Structures are given as structure tokens and as C-alpha cells.
Amino acid sequence: MTPPVPFFDRARGDLVMQDELTAVFQSVVQSGRYILGPEVEAFESECAAYLGVRHAIGVSSGTDALLAALMALGIGAGDEVVCPAYTFFATAGAVHRTGARPVLADVLPGSCNLDPASLARALTSRTRAVIAVHLFGGCAPMDELLAVAGGRGVPIIEDAAQAFGAERGGRRAGALGLMGCFSFFPTKNLGGFGDGGLVTTDHDDLADRVRSLRAQGARRKHHHTLVGGNFRLDALQAALLRRKLPRLGALLGRRREHAARYAALLGGAGLPISLPDAGSAGHTFNQYVIRLKDASLRDPLRSFLAEQGIGTEIYYPAPLHLQPCFAPLGPPEGSLPVAEAAARETLALPIFPELTVEEIARVASAVASFFG
């Protein structure tokens, strides 16, 4: 029986590093330091150097990175924050948790990143920030977005949860806006061993506020200058991630090779699908998302691939303005057509670094055979 092709298999990469990771775990246990501490400080310094920013602050998750960034900017009740409607829920969920109103804008047809024209229409006198998502590992059009938002004096927060190591214009994600927010969820480019996140910025005052906010608003024990939260990064997560960071370049290289192979196998077959734009060398392909020209075939294709033992995922089955909890905020169905179409037409294929050439060929062959 032909073995299945998993959508994602984290163990393949971790087992290669098993001895090293086990030694790291033992060293943390022996140290007795489990919250923040030297391992977190070293990891923050190494991330700052890699990303090209002055400050990198480790936090408990990508969601908490967004929340801490918004809180550091003082965003709250009565404020508006513009973000794309086609993204993971946490992007807008973090805005809502501050008491501010998420204003949902449309996305570009190709990259599915925030559309600068839609952003311009969404800005109001109450807009305090914009969250630009670097979706699927490809950077949003930051030059255009900064021109639109900057003209109104509105800062941009980068939701770079899926884009650690992505680049645009010679700079890395997380160094393009006022603040950057990353996730170390296990499926990410730099995947941890549980939850973890990072906030980046070049501004000393914002970095200082985030460091306070992650520890209940205190820079020293029992002295609270702010009302914060428990957003601290575990020392064990930092220690393990430190050992993976030097390997990231090679891992991203494999993702790009896989994307190029998919493009070669699927791009010239005349199939009724659109492939991700691989034109940008800075894309990291945290996901490889194809788009069906006939939305009615997306779910049948997914079922067909499952029958062949091939794992897939749908990112995302509903845009945020059509989620029940955000329905009262608007806009109504039909008002953000590109995001709504993307939710109906997209399907993610396997793309993790340890995927084999044979597995990619099998996936591509199965997709082609579905269309006969």
C-alpha cells in the first residue's frame, strides 16, 4: 500500500535534531530557569540580528504578540484598526480584545494580501492603526500600504505569523512597519514546541512598553506602571528555537524548491487552477495555496486527494466579515468580493521542508488526474 502524503509532518525534521534537542531540554531543567531568563534574552538578540531590528521581545504566542503591540500603542475603545478580511481569526480577534473595532478590508486577487485601494477606503478619523498580514509567507505590498497609511499618520503593524524570514525590498518581515508580530506555532517557518511569539520594533519606547505589558505591566517585581498580561515566553521554547534558527535559511530554501517543483509540474499542464506567485524571491511558502477557477470543484478536489492519501487544508473557509462574531460589525456579504472568492476557491497542498521529490510528484499527478 502506498504510504500517505501528510499535509504536514513536524516529526521528520525534529527527529533529525533529536539528540541536540534532548540535550537542550536537559540543560534547561538543570538550570531551573523556566520563564524568561538568559535563554530568552539570547534568543531575542539572535532574532533581532536575523530580522534586522533593534528590538525583539519574546511573548507567549502570535496572538499575544498582536495584542501586546496594540496595547503598546494605547489602542482601545472608540478606536478602529483596519485589517484584511482574509486571514486567520487572531488578526481581528486581537483588535476586538482591546475594545477597538476591527475594520475589515479586501485583499489583492493574486497574493490575497491587503489591498492598498481597499485600505484607503476603510480609513476614517478613528483609525489608529493598520494590521498588514504577510499571508502564506509572502510579504504584503508594504510600500503602497505605507504610502496610504502614512499619509494619514496611521502606523502599520505587521502580522508576520506565517512569514518569519520573508523579505521585501531587501528587508525582512518584521522590519517593514512600526512593529512586527510573529508566531512560533509548530507549523510555522520557525516552528516551536508549543506556543510562542515575538514582537519586533526599532522604537525603544515601544519595546519598553511591550516588555512591561508581557509581565503584568511591570518592569520590576510588584511595581506596575501599566495594566498588562501574562505574555511571557518560556525559557524552554526559546532554548529549543535557538537551535533551529541557524537552520532556518536551509529550511526556507527547501520550501522554495518545493514551490518551484510544484510550479513546474502544475504550471504547464493547462489545468483550471492558479498557482501562487513565485516571482518574489522573498516568499517563504509557509503554505502553498492553489486557487481553482471553478469554486464548485474545490471541495471535490480535496475529497479526491484525501482518497489518494494526500493531506490538504483550507485557508480560510470564511472571510472574517462573515464570521458570526463579527457579523454585527459589517460589512455585509458581497461587499468584499475578492476575500469572499478566495475563501471559496483556495486549497493548500503539502509544502513542509522534509517533503520528498517523490511526494511532490505524487501530489501534482493526483491534482492533474482529478481534472482528467
Q: If you had to describe this structure to a student in words, what would you say it looks like?
A:
The chain has 372 residues and is of the alpha/beta class. It folds into two domains: 10-245, 3-Layer(aba) Sandwich (Aspartate Aminotransferase, domain 2); 247-370, Aspartate Aminotransferase, domain 1 (Alpha-Beta Complex). The protein has helices at residues 10-16, 18-31, 38-51, 62-72, 90-97, 116-122, 142-150, 204-213, 235-244, 248-267, 298-307, 337-345, 357-370, and strands spanning 55-59, 80-84, 101-105, 127-133, 156-159, 167-168, 171-172, 179-183, 197-201, 218-220, 223-224, 273-274, 288-292, 346-349. It has a seven-stranded mixed sheet, sandwiched between helices. Strands 12-13-14 form a three-stranded antiparallel sheet. A hairpin with a 2-residue loop joins strand 6 and strand 7 (171-172). Helix 3 packs across helix 9 (235-244), helix 4 crosses helix 8 and helix 10 (248-267) packs parallel to helix 13.
